[in-house]
Amino acid sequence: MQLSLVDRTILVTGGGSGIGKGVAAAVVASGGNAMLVGRNADKLATAVEEIGAAAGEGAGEVRYEPADVTNEDEVAHVVDAAAAWHGRLHGVVHSAGGSLTIGPLTQVDSEGWRNTVDLNVNGTMYVLKHSAREMVRGGGGSFVGISSIASSNTHRWFAAYGPSKAALDHLMMLAADELGPSWVRVNGIRPGLIRTDMVAPILDSPAISADYASCTPLPRPGEVTDVANAAVFLLSDAAEWITGQVLNVDGGHGLRRGPDMSSMLEPVFGADGLRGAVS
Fold it and tell me: Domain span at residue 144?
């Protein structure tokens, strides 16, 4: 089965690092043209240089456009730029996201909660809204939203992250239902614990990493390439009759429970704090 993206233009948000950067590299290696989007122009430029240097024969092109996905005007601009690059936008991998607060719900920082919801929910909606318009005009396409296992399995003390990623999952299904008649496919990927700079403190913690392993039938951390391979599949013609799905790429972790982060958070909030007590 050939997963070719030759002559296709793919917009990748959160493309400066982690999963987004890995997806962009896989798109280029599959012959596609990847436009990286993120807030940090320096990180994007470095990612473009590294992806370009590693690209082999038959690889696509890569470039970047800085933008904040929580700013709708900036999102509209980069979508227009991606569509104009080679005349059409064929797909999107929306990887921009994260969490700006962590801790017990009774002590959660409300501004951090709002900002996380803005990033993960509103940012997703802006990218989907404007890119779907272009893909409908072009006769179809594929949108892949990067979610999280925290959307389906409770991750205690993750605050807004899990609920906002659950909203992303529902948005993928809603959009798939609406956009199917225009041949725009919309799917999501729920990564488990993926080895990136963001999760380095978890992997460096013997207690937490061991807990993750005990909850994962395939007991190793995921790699960025695991998610990138799934994303390229969903972008490709090999998935042309797949829409409205959320694919777990988690080593089977979704079959069990969320992680126990108490060893990391109890020193900060106290045992009573983790059960919701506020002094």
Answer: 9-274
**279 domain-assigned:** no
**Residue range 61-105, pLDDT digits in tens:** 999 999 999 999 999 999 999 999 999 999 999 999 999 999 999
Are the CB atoms for 156 and 103 separated by under 8 Å? Answer: no
Residue 3 lies in a domain: no
* 9-68 tens-digit pLDDT: 999 999 999 999 999 999 999 999 999 999 999 999 999 999 999 998 899 999 999 999
Q: Residue 91: enclosing H or E segment and its boundaries?
A: strand 91-94
Q: Indicate which CATH number applies to the domain containing 260.
A: 3.40.50.720
Number of Cβ within a 10 Å radius of residue 181: 8
- 64 close to 206: Cβ distance less than 8 angstroms: no
**Catalytic one of 64, 126, 161, 212:** 161
In a domain, 74, yes or no: yes
Contacts of residue 99, defined as CB under 8 A and 6 or more positions apart, other chains included, come to: 112, 116, 158, 159, 160, 161
With contact defined as beta carbons under 8 Å apart, do 202 and 212 qualify?
yes
Which H or E element spans position 184?
strand 184-191
Would the pTM count as exceeding 0.90?
yes
The question of whether 64 is a catalytic residue gets the answer no
Give the span between the Cα atoms of 46 and 52, in whole angstroms: 10
3-state SS assignment for residue 63: strand
